[in-house]
Amino acid sequence: MARVVLVSLYDKGALGARHVSGMLKRAGHEVALVYLKEYNQRLKKHVRGLPDEDLHEGVTPLGEDMVHGITSPVSPVEEDLFLDLLGRLDPAVVGFSLRTCCLRTAQRLTRLVKRRLSVPVIWGSIAPTIDPEWCLPHADALCLGEGEHAMVEYVEAVEAGRDPSDIAGLWLRRDGDAARNPLRPLIQDLDELPYADFDPGGKYLIENGRVSEDPGVANVLGVFEIMTSRGCPHSCAYCCNDALRRLYPRQKYVRRRSVEHVIGELRWAKENLPIRSVNFYDDVFTFNPRWIEEFAPAYQREIGLPFWCFVSPLHAHRPSLERLRDAGLTSVTCGIESGSERILFEVYNRPIKNERVIACAEVLRDLGIFYNFDLITDNPFESDEDCRRTLDLLLRLPRPVRLNYGLSKLSFFPHARITEMLEEQGVPPRPDPVRFAFFNRLYLLAQSRLPRGFIHWLSERGWLRRHPGLLQGFFLPGRARLALLAVARAVGKRILPRRLIHAIKVRFPGLLR
């Protein structure tokens, strides 16, 4: 039996690390999970000292630039706590589960671990899989692709003193050379895998200058996180799923666990953990109506907790959503990404027509399921016309329109197809900030009670296009009326179309006197 420490950077949910831990435990090994720091959100103006490529940026519902999932630096005190904890746990192998935004942190911590402990360090998850050549110089080994079987073989080789350099799915450094083994095939029968490791024991959180044993089950207290499938039915050019799919040609990419296996894990969680609700983190939960038809009554009968999931406009079948609602579905997040079909079809490789988005929203509204939308902005491939089409779509959706924590700015990850397009076409990665400051605020205003015609009228004002900061007043608490008044006075209220004047007077009595 070997002792292994798996480190999850900036993610307590850590589903990938938890699945590997479950597999190692089933093979008889002892595993500790260390969550090192948590994700936070912070206004961009308060973020200092981090390279732009490490930031996933967005816009708050109040129109301010922000950073989603800020990877706050690990302090010297927290580094010492981490190393001291590893010393007490005395592992034979240390594994890091990391994404692209965590690479510099993982690089520094790996150096510290190698300096303090004479143990091999292996990196796994999406970043090493997508960009192994960059990662290889910084770790003893990389686990590429789905790591459950490869990690068991690696740990057992280390324990037995055997050379692990021929294990499929691993890359290893060897005195100036490297062993670059081929990927393992995708695991087709997901039921062969054990449940993710949510046992309360052996879990540690390092945050805010202290270390604590942490039995918390996820990033949100009381919420159980689970995936019932692997892979996404879409191949969006900005997403890791497209890059991963290209690594596995001629293999079935989207796979799903049986209903029995999923209900078994949820039943265990309900009986053993203090959970109040469930989040299904499948890329698209509703892609298979037959599976939903079997799952919904089983979930309603045996679990019965409220739950959330991702849906896609292409997989928003009314019968499936109705079954899920009756089983406990209370809310969903749905990707719009853009209202420009040119961008969706030619740039994002996401061929979804706007009418499907509108139909999806209408179904969710009719069924009483709370929904919000993901929208990508600050895309350098977009023209003014593309942005206007996005605004037009938002203004056509049934109200209330809700955007998921504001807006997400387009990120360019290594080896993503859209990153390759950017380089091939010589498109500057930083789009016109004035244009997007203007349209981003208009997108957010689509969530408001302002008349839609008035928002459309604002979008046609050239002086607002040149001075988008004038729109910020709409987002200040208690200042929307003053912003409306400023706009009306700036152009003279008689320039407003009569129907808009009437609508504003109805919504905001006395404003345009």
Brief characterization of the structure:
This protein is of the alpha/beta class and 513 residues long.
Describe the SSE topology.
Blueprint: E1 3-9, H1 15-26, E2 30-36, E3 40-43, E4 56-59, E5 65-70, H2 76-89, E6 93-97, H3 103-116, E7 121-124, H4 126-130, H5 132-135, E8 141-143, H6 148-160, E9 170-174, E10 177-180, E11 203-207, E12 210-213, E13 223-226, E14 229-230, H7 240-247, E15 255-256, H8 259-272, E16 277-280, H9 289-302, E17 307-311, H10 318-327, E18 329-337, H11 341-347, H12 354-367, E19 370-377, H13 384-396, E20 407-409, H14 417-425, H15 433-445, H16 452-459, H17 462-466, H18 480-491, H19 498-507
Parallel strand pairs: 1-2, 1-6, 2-11, 6-7, 7-8, 13-16, 16-17, 17-18, 18-19, 19-20
Antiparallel strand pairs: 3-5, 4-5, 4-20, 8-9, 9-10, 11-12, 14-15
Description of the molecule:
The strands form 3 sheets. A 9-stranded mixed sheet has the order 10-9-8-7-6-1-2-11-12, sandwiched between helices. The mean pLDDT is 89. It is globular. The protein has 3 domains: 3-37 and 74-192, Rossmann fold; 221-431, TIM Barrel (Alpha-Beta Barrel), CATH 3.20.20.70; 450-513, no CATH class. It has 19 helices and 20 strands. It is an alpha/beta fold. Helices cover 39% and strands 19% of the residues.
What is the CATH superfamily classification of the largest domain? Aldolase class I
**Overall domain count:** 3
Shape, please? globular
**Unreliable stretches:** none
Main sheet overview: 9 strands, mixed
What class do helices, strands and sheet pairing give? alpha/beta
The third-level CATH topology of the largest domain is TIM Barrel
CATH architecture descriptor of the largest domain:
Alpha-Beta Barrel
In the sheet with the most strands, the strands line up as 10-9-8-7-6-1-2-11-12
What level of helicity do the residues show?
Answer: 25-40%
Radius of gyration over alpha carbons?
25 Å
CATH class of the largest domain: Alpha Beta
> Count of DSSP helices?
19
Mean pLDDT: 89
Q: Distance N terminus to C terminus?
A: 80 Å
The percentage of residues in β strands lies in 15-25%
Report the count of strand segments. Answer: 20
